[in-house]
Amino acid sequence: MKKAFFALLLAFGGTLAVLAEVNPKPFVVPELTSWQGAEGRFVPSGRIVVPPNKSLRVVAERFAADYATMFGRKLTLVSGDAQAGDFVFSLQKDVAERSLGKEGYVLRIGKTAAVSAADAQGAYWATRTLLQLSEQNRSHTLPCGTTTDIPAYALRGFMIDCGRKFIPMDYLNKLVSVMAYYKMNTLQVHLNDNGFKQYFGNDWNKTQSAFRLESNFFPGLTAKDGSYTKREFIDFQKIAEQQYVDIVPEIDVPAHSLAFSHYRPSLGSKEYGIDHLDLNNPAVVPFLDSLFTEYCGGSNPVFRGKTVHIGTDEYSNKDKAVVEKFRALTDHLIRHVEKHGKQAMVWGALTHAQGETPVKVDNVKMQIWYNGYADPLKMKELGYKLVSIPDGQVYIVPAAGYYYDYLNTQWLYNNWTPATIGSVKFEEGDPSLLGGMFAVWNDHVGNGITVKDIHHRVMPALQTLATKCWTAKQTSLPYADFERQSRFLSEAPGVDELGRTLGKGTRTTADYPNTTLLPSTTLDWIGPEIGYDYSVSFDLEATAVNKGDTLFTSPNAILYLASPESGKLAFVREGCLNEFDYAVPKGKRVRLTLQGNRHETRLLVNGRFHQALYPLTLGAVSPNAGAAGATSNPYSAAKMYYQRTLVFPLQRTGAFHGKIMNLSVSNFIE
């Protein structure tokens, strides 16, 4: 039958017509919630047609700037009629507002690429889709088709612990851009916390603690090892607002509060440990009122957003009296921030702290992190608006040996949505459930984990959680395809914290066999650094070897020819010096290879393995862990796994005597 049909076509037309192919659903993260494919490709003209609407014009300007950053092509904003190849933006506030909400959008790609939304936020999310589609082919054309893309959950977020480890503002700003690129709209900044005393000689007075914000009300409270000025924090929130990411600042009390009792010792509890504030001390409430007022009050508050997190987790429930005081303080702080026009967010703790003292429910967001502390179904019955952040599924604690070092993204992709909170499962779309988040907790203070290491853990988790919070169960790709294709996407316009200087997702080697590098040479033709997994090889001829001589540098790391301490080959990042047991010979040519992955840094000399700086195990189990040294409580183990990783610096050669030759850089390790 088929042969006869084709013969008939040839007899009448002389040629065989080729049927155009309808475009399948394109890959973006998060996945589009609908797609109707059409034929052909959209070829951009270089114009954006936008009406005279201020908020929409800001979105179009941001899109143009990001497009230029990513692709080196300037898009021009115009008004009037659209032409073939134009990007077109419009707001449809009548029917669309009821069906799309604030964050949904319709994207029709044909002769034009037309975005319509009820709100500028939806239009902004559409631009993230356009950029992701554009970066997947060299000509930046788009597949023709139509999507109506609407998130399943209104809150899609991430929490980062800046209390135990200072996270520089430069990274927080980049993190906002990364979150926005994947349509994640909530970043919780955990501003105070402390280490565990078993890592500090079981002495609270020596235990690390930090409050990361500048304070005028309480001079001396702000951490000395890294903090944010009020101006910095305000500007940070403004940058986030432009990308539709809500910043939720958190001041965690009355537990996790060692920074406050270090500042004012009388506030600490002698009964429960001074990381707990003493709820029997009448000075505690006025102190906390003043603290929250400093950042929430006034006509230009430091905390600009609508939501402020007041902490309230993991306080002792040893006796009824302290439980009632804890509940009373929680209620008081909720109402206190509301007086300043803020909505309170809390950690779920009211099952752990069952009692009679009423705690305000209306207009309060509650993070459900552990069902033993707050039973999700009971919190729903009370009327709280719930945020799913189950510790056993979405908590990252880098290199700690408990929770997750890297999230199990395959399991999450295949099984999890915000409706799954531990063993409890809600119906998708339950009105009590706002959405989902994941978290990074930097519990092990001083374990050598860098911001680069944190980001390496954040990226796969963020791409996965972004998808599951936007599409819920409606993912159509197998996980293996999702994971593979995700690697080819950018982190965000102008952001490369992973150090993918040789490209994304493909194995690449850059050789420079005829280039001799002298000291203090800028390496613009390579890149500032290369991230895991990498192999960097070079011939080195040092005419002198002096302590402190450097080979390669970047803003984040230094590779020393001779450590300032021992004179051996070494590297430093974030103040942590790591030395190889190898001294570079003077006047002798050697070939050095450094290989780095997320666990270790290896050194090869003249092609032969010499040493691996793998994690060091420091300390031992707690003496209170029992006769066999075993414990069911991971926090009680005084054991730390010190990391010696390196994102290799390639911005400049350093200050040394000699020359570097035959540089070779690979984004993989054989």
Percent helix, as a range, is: 10-25%
Based on DSSP secondary structure assignment, what is the total number of beta strands?
A: 37
Helical region count? 14
Low-confidence stretches: 1-18, 621-632
Task: Work out the strand percent.
Answer: 25-35%
Q: Assembly state here?
A: single chain
The major β-sheet equals:
8 strands, parallel, barrel
Strand order of the largest sheet: 8-9-12-15-16-17-18-22
Using only C-alpha atoms, the radius of gyration works out to: 28 Å
Compute the separation of the termini in Å.
54 Å
Shape verdict? globular
State the secondary-structure class: alpha/beta
Overall mean pLDDT score?
94
Please give a handful of descriptors for the protein shown.
670 residues, alpha/beta, eight-stranded parallel β-barrel, seven-stranded mixed β-sheet, 14 helices, 37 strands, 24% helix, globular, disordered N terminus
Fold topology:
Elements: H1 2-13, E1 36-42, E2 47-49, H2 54-71, E3 76-78, E4 87-91, H3 95-100, E5 105-109, E6 113-117, H4 120-134, E7 142-149, E8 155-161, H5 169-181, E9 186-190, E10 192-194, E11 209-211, H6 230-242, E12 246-253, H7 258-263, E13 268-269, E14 273-277, H8 284-296, E15 307-311, H9 320-339, E16 343-347, E17 365-368, H10 376-382, E18 385-388, H11 391-394, E19 395-396, H12 409-415, E20 420-421, E21 424-425, E22 433-440, H13 451-471, H14 479-486, E23 509-517, E24 529-530, E25 534-544, E26 550-553, E27 558-560, E28 570-573, E29 576-579, E30 590-596, E31 601-605, E32 608-613, E33 616-620, E34 638-642, E35 648-649, E36 652-653, E37 657-666
Parallel strand pairs: 2-3, 2-4, 4-6, 8-9, 8-22, 9-12, 12-15, 15-16, 16-17, 17-18, 18-22, 19-22
Antiparallel strand pairs: 1-7, 5-6, 5-7, 10-11, 13-14, 20-21, 23-37, 24-35, 25-30, 25-37, 26-27, 26-36, 27-28, 28-29, 30-31, 31-32, 33-34
